[in-house]
Amino acid sequence: MRLLATALLVLALPMISHARDTMDGCGLGWEVTSDETMIATTTRGTTNVFVPPAFGMTTGTLGCKQLSFASNEKEAVNYVVNNYSNLKQQLAVGQGEYVDGLIEVMNCGSADKIQSQYDTVVAPAKDGVELYQNLKNVCG
Length: 140
What we know:
By secondary structure, the chain is mainly alpha-helical. The protein has helices at residues 2-17, 28-32, 38-50, 54-59, 68-82, 84-93, 97-106, 111-115, 118-121, 128-139.
């Protein structure tokens, strides 16, 4: 049985080494090997399991194209995370320079929409990331 498996592998190697790689696109695996073989694809896949290409897709690095949601949301996420405390205070009263900036960066329309849902959107947020996610649901 072992001999049969070895023989099949030896016969398949020429086909494996010339197989066109269309199974994966970017990530740290491509930094390890860029060969277009079945073995290289397996190596990239294994590498990308342990180091997923999500970082590359959100930053546009490691041979990955930056995903549109990442580039579109980057400014809004940074704004909310960096101004979390001020936003939480000003959203309680529904006005202020940080609220004005938030409305602009998230295309929210008006502060009234957020303030009317303060108890379910702003108050429970433990950090800027959670606040951003809650605001995203309100602002769309």
